[in-house]
Each structure stands twice: as structure tokens, then as C-alpha cells.
Amino acid sequence: MTERTFVMVKPDGVQRGLIGEIIARFEDRGLKLVGAKLMRIDQALAEEHYAEHTDKPFFEDLTDFITSGPVLAMVWEGQDAIAQVRTMMGATDPAESAPGTIRGDFGLDMGRNVIHGSDTEPGSAEREIELFFDEEELEDYERIDEAWLY
Ligand code: RTP
Ligand code: MG
């Protein structure tokens, strides 16, 4: 099923110059970029984005980190895009993520794990896309190689 997912290069990924590398991986995999912006997340947006973790002991560290510098917010589209991105990201803890995954190759620790992607809970991706993007910021277009991909 063609679907959209929300993906974000976290402040550590931006600072370490990993934006190009990460975008290239999704392009190579045949996913289509439909929205992107470099932005700074404020406290309110951080708390809403990570609302499911409000009561966790790491919540304050998490919101401090995600607001600490610019992030690259993106929307990617493709067949089973949500699960595909999660697979390409690797496990949350870089110590456990497989080599070849983004976190497995670049992640440092549980906090500085380079990338966020919507989880596969129904509605998660849609909620996050709406939280970060207005409808007119998302582009509907056909990639020239699309017919060869799916
Ligand atoms: P994300 O939301 O950032 O894409 O990561 P995720 O789905 O793989 O992991 P999630 O459970 O949603 O946790 C969100 C972020 O919180 C930090 N975390 N720290 N210290 C801890 O036990 C702990 N657990 C999670 C991680 O930075 C994780 O990406
Ligand atoms: Mg998550």
C-alpha cells in the first residue's frame, strides 16, 4: 500500500553533516520525498510530538535534546513506507541496531540516535505529518523512475 511517513534528522544528525547521506538512502530505496524543511522544534511542539512518552523518566532529556538545534523534518512516500523506514532506521538503541541500518551505522547512544521515523501504530504517521506540515507544503508529483520502482 502506498503511504506517507514522517521522518526527521535529529539535531545530532544535522550537526554531524549526515543529512545528505540519509536522504540518499531513502532515494536509493525508491521512496519519494514529498516534503522537507529545516526547522527548530520549540518546547510545545516537542512535548506534543513525544506525547506518548510524557510520563517516562527520559522525557525531559528527550525534549531538551530535540529542541537543542535544527532538525530536518521530512515526509517520504512509497509502498509500505512506514515500516520500510523503520527497518532502514534500525533499533532505537544504536548498541542493538544492525550494521547497514542508519542507527547501526551512525548512532552513538540511546539519545543521539540520529533519526526519527513514525512508528507503525495506526494513525501515528498521519498525526505527525499534520503536526509538522501544512497540506500545501507537501508536493504531489510523479518521480520519473516511478514506473520502474513499483
Ligand atoms: P523515535 O520516536 O525517536 O523515532 O524513536 P523510536 O520510535 O525508535 O523510540 P521511542 O520508544 O519512540 O523513543 C523515542 C526516543 O526516546 C529516546 N529514548 N530513550 N533512555 C531510554 O530508555 C530511552 N528510550 C527511548 C530515544 O532517543 C528514542 O529515539
Ligand atoms: Mg517513536
From TrEMBL:
Record Gene3D superfamilies: Nucleoside diphosphate kinase-like domain
One CC-aspect GO term: cytoplasm
Active-site residue list: 116
Any one GO molecular-function label of the UniProt entry: ATP binding
Coiled coil: none
Catalytic activity: a 2'-deoxyribonucleoside 5'-diphosphate + ATP = a 2'-deoxyribonucleoside 5'-triphosphate + ADP; a ribonucleoside 5'-diphosphate + ATP = a ribonucleoside 5'-triphosphate + ADP
Nucleoside diphosphate kinase-like domain location: 2-140
Alphabetic keyword roster: ATP-binding, Cytoplasm, Kinase, Magnesium, Metal-binding, Nucleotide metabolism, Nucleotide-binding, Phosphoprotein, Transferase
Keyword tRNA processing: no
CDD domains noted in UniProt: NDPk_I
Co-factor requirement: Mg(2+)
Record family assignment: Belongs to the NDK family.
Known role: Major role in the synthesis of nucleoside triphosphates other than ATP. The ATP gamma phosphate is transferred to the NDP beta phosphate via a ping-pong mechanism, using a phosphorylated active-site intermediate.
Protein name: Nucleoside diphosphate kinase
Organism in which the protein naturally occurs: Halodesulfurarchaeum formicicum
Species lineage: Archaea, Methanobacteriati, Methanobacteriota, Stenosarchaea group, Halobacteria
